[in-house]
Amino acid sequence: MRTRPLKVALLGCGVVGSEVARIMTTHADDLTARIGAPVELAGVAVRRPSKVRAGIDPALVTTDATALVKRGDIDVVVEVIGGIEPARTLITTAFEHGASVVSANKALLAQDGAALHAAAVEHGRDLYYEAAVAGAIPLIRPLRESLAGDKINRVMGIVNGTTNFILDKMDSTGAGYQEALDEATALGYAEADPTADVEAFDAAAKAAILAGIAFHTRVRLDDVYREGMTEVTAADFASAKGMGCTIKLLAICERAADGGSVTARVHPAMIPLTHPLASVRGAYNAVFVESEAAGQLMFYGPGAGGAPTASAVLGDLVAVCRNRLGGATGPGDSAYAQLPVSPMGEVVTRYHISLDVADKPGVLAQVATVFAEHGVSIDTVRQSGKDGEASLVVVTHRASDASLAGTVEALRGLDTVRGVSSIMRVEGE
Amino acid sequence: MRTRPLKVALLGCGVVGSEVARIMTTHADDLTARIGAPVELAGVAVRRPSKVRAGIDPALVTTDATALVKRGDIDVVVEVIGGIEPARTLITTAFEHGASVVSANKALLAQDGAALHAAAVEHGRDLYYEAAVAGAIPLIRPLRESLAGDKINRVMGIVNGTTNFILDKMDSTGAGYQEALDEATALGYAEADPTADVEAFDAAAKAAILAGIAFHTRVRLDDVYREGMTEVTAADFASAKGMGCTIKLLAICERAADGGSVTARVHPAMIPLTHPLASVRGAYNAVFVESEAAGQLMFYGPGAGGAPTASAVLGDLVAVCRNRLGGATGPGDSAYAQLPVSPMGEVVTRYHISLDVADKPGVLAQVATVFAEHGVSIDTVRQSGKDGEASLVVVTHRASDASLAGTVEALRGLDTVRGVSSIMRVEGE
Ligand SMILES: NC(=O)c1ccc[n+]([C@@H]2O[C@H](COP(=O)([O-])OP(=O)(O)OC[C@H]3O[C@@H](n4cnc5c(N)ncnc54)[C@H](OP(=O)(O)O)[C@@H]3O)[C@@H](O)[C@H]2O)c1
Ligand SMILES: NC(=O)c1ccc[n+]([C@@H]2O[C@H](COP(=O)([O-])OP(=O)(O)OC[C@H]3O[C@@H](n4cnc5c(N)ncnc54)[C@H](OP(=O)(O)O)[C@@H]3O)[C@@H](O)[C@H]2O)c1
Q1: A43 in Cβ contact with A51 (< 8 Å)
Q2: What residues form the membrane-spanning segments (chains A, B) (predicted)?
Q3: Which of A238, A250, A415, B409 sits at a 20 to 30 Å CA gap from B143?
């Protein structure tokens, strides 16, 4: 066993970073045994140097992250600051100065993963980021390594705990969106500004990362279709229940049936209560993977939180340290397949559409004609009405998103259709 | 990219091996891209050379596995023969001749893992065996690598598909054990001789492997307490339902509360219907992992079958080939913690005990006294009786297996106790 310790620079010491530092200290002996050499916290970069940080030697704390990364003796940089800058520059600087990098930064990885991977390769270093997707759940390593001999066809998951908490509340209590969001905020599950979660920016970043790994293809954040969950209503949940479904915000990465292209999207969707993802409660995450040989796999666990996220960061830290000792690098980025990413219009799925219509004879025939004209085949229709007002709930067979959009536009043009009150995709069947 | 192919010797071409060969051929380009060099099937060892094997070049087929392994130009040996010999000797011979090894052989790994790992280390080669536990489910890599920075406290799983199929049938149809087994046999889920599955030898081998990896400790097959599921009755399922539970054959590897020792055991147990493992249907496998930082994780998927098992074998093959190209070895065996493995008597859990008793006053008091004398605290008692015969169902609080065994022995000695009709552990609460 080597005794010169591997030196770790910790950039950020907030929710995740403080747990990383704590575990590095309390479990130092285990880490040493598993890596084959001791690891030493060589410096901790923060914004507020005077903040008291339990268990952190104040002499290690600095506000000059750049100088820490440039010291030249750092083996591994752990980036848990978050955001684009200064994280991006710090990571590339780390590579330039010979360090490998472990990051939990989904926003940055989704936006600039290609450039960061290229920098890692250029300098012969590792870039690991298991914590960036689904927190503690081992997902990136299983997709990249365990399934390296298989062909992944679909990744479908609940990858944002905040929105799952809100949707689960709406489902179990009948609450509306705002009420459920308020409770999530009060309990600390939602941030003061919940935009990144509820508008699905966070989930979209994760979808881009997952699709890239699953399909060995470069998937940019802009390639991901994104629809938030702020419009989901109690009425949608009631409709879903009527169909034996619930509603989840899903990240879905799919290979087209002909294998020639892929899609990535994030939106609320109805899924059958019998689907394993339907029973994922509270702030938990779960990801369902379908591959050619392995079949259906599911990975489940806490998608966020200081300690769970730190578990993933430390797993990466051990791997990266072992690679350094062995003079090797791990399996890095792989985009050899270079499949085109198709736009949302080419996604094929099922739809649940609620229409407010005039309560008079012939409306259903008119509506059905519009669906038929756009090549969207109807599975079931439910009609209900009173006082001259009526509603129609249509569930379709599989059709392209473009055909559905055309259908909806045409429906809106009908005199007898007062409004399209909700459109929701139906997945997992 | 290197163009000299890596040479793979396939030992065994049955259910799993034939799928490995098929995928190596049909997905050759993907494997090449992911490994960084082509892989070539250099030879296939079987018992019956004349059997027609679709897609396998007859010129590659041999019955002399030893000569194949000794050829000297083999980079990776894939052992999917099964059983102890000749698999064991072939694997050690492979290391001696410079090859790394991928195996799916749980029986061999559980019995001789230590010696095989030592041989791998001695020759600087890899020994990977993701397929040996829970088929396609990535489990060994997540436990060994993703959770390398965490402290695993418990691994509890359904790791045998045959017995889960049988128990699921009994649960859903009310069938008895024999009837459910017959159906499993007819459908090909159980072998003609189902002993290895139903007496839990297979699950015990997997428990030994999982406990060793989870706790960085040598756990031998003899260290695993093993109880099969042939005695589980329809009446047990009825009792379980009354408690909001179902019955599963569980492999449970636990760290003692004081952290100073571990246990590994396999037996049928009641678990609450709300536990994620309760809803694992048919021949699926699932493993629940509890660790200090990550919390509760679950891994779910097909635990057997040719293609799923081949998926795991090929994931290992890619990793081992990459390691070879990089001149490195992966994270191998780790038993540094050297925790003692405690006997079953020290396991602490809850129990569900059914007694046939005389239907007269004072029996419950007598029975309760016996429990109290052995330090086993009672949670609930249900009494029912007719015609001078009565039954008592006792559910205990947590107690050691030794205390429970003492209690049961004393109960059997009571005049008023006609028999102990079932004892089942209650887990997952
Ligand atoms: N929290 C989770 O559950 C979770 C889960 C998965 C992934 N992640 C990812 O993990 C990363 C960190 O998240 P977090 O929740 O730990 O964030 P956080 O609690 O806000 O902590 C951020 C840390 O970075 C420091 N920092 C900010 N700007 C800095 C700068 N310019 N130079 C040096 N230090 C700076 C802060 O210093 P001060 O302490 O002085 O303010 C703080 O210690 C993010 O990428 C996030 O997406 C988080
Ligand atoms: N089947 C599963 O679902 C599954 C799941 C997980 C793990 N595993 C493990 O995978 C391994 C293989 O299982 P399997 O189901 O594929 O077994 P299998 O169908 O019985 O195939 C065994 C293969 O080994 C060959 N063989 C037997 N003795 C040999 C010898 N002395 N020399 C050379 N070849 C010999 C057989 O040759 P012939 O073809 O000529 O008979 C056959 O091709 C076992 O360790 C098993 O525990 C299997």
Answers
A1: no
A2: none
A3: A250
Compute CA distances B341 → A284, A307, B168, B350, whole Å.
Answer: 33, 28, 31, 20
B82 lines ligand 2 (CB under 6 A): yes
A7 touches B at CB < 8 Å: no
pLDDT score of A359: 87
Pairing mode, strands A417-426 and A262-272: parallel
Is residue B77 a known part of a binding site? no
**B344-426 CATH fold:** Alpha-Beta Plaits (3.30.70)
Write out pLDDT tens, residues A207-259.
999 999 999 999 999 999 999 999 999 999 999 999 999 999 999 999 999 98
The domain made up of A6-135+306-326 has a fold known as Rossmann fold (3.40.50)
- Best A144, A145, A318 residue to mutate vs chain B (most B CBs within 10 Å): A145
What type of residue is B213? I
What does pLDDT average to over chain B?
A: 95
Q: Hey, where are the domains in chain B?
A: 6-135+306-326, 140-302, 344-426
Tell me the pTM.
Answer: 0.95
The parts of chain B modelled with pLDDT lower than 50 are none
CA distances from B236 to A299, A412, B159, B184, B239 (A): 31, 59, 21, 20, 5
What sign for the dihedral angle of Cα A363, A369, A375, A379?
positive
Q: Are strands B152-158 and B284-291 parallel, antiparallel or unpaired?
A: antiparallel
Cβ(B91) to ligand 2 under 6 A? Answer: no
Q: Is any atom of ligand 1 closer than 6 Å to the C-beta of A218?
A: no
Write out residues 83-142 of A within 8 Å (CB-CB) of B. Answer: 130, 136-138, 141-142
**Global ipTM:** 0.94
B39, B144, B146: which to substitute to probe chain A, counting the most A Cβ within 10 Å?
B146
**Residue B7 falls in the annotated catalytic set:** no
Q: CB of B188 within 8 Å of any CB in chain A?
A: no
Give the up-direction half-sphere exposure of residue B384: CA atoms within 13 A in the CB hemisphere: 4
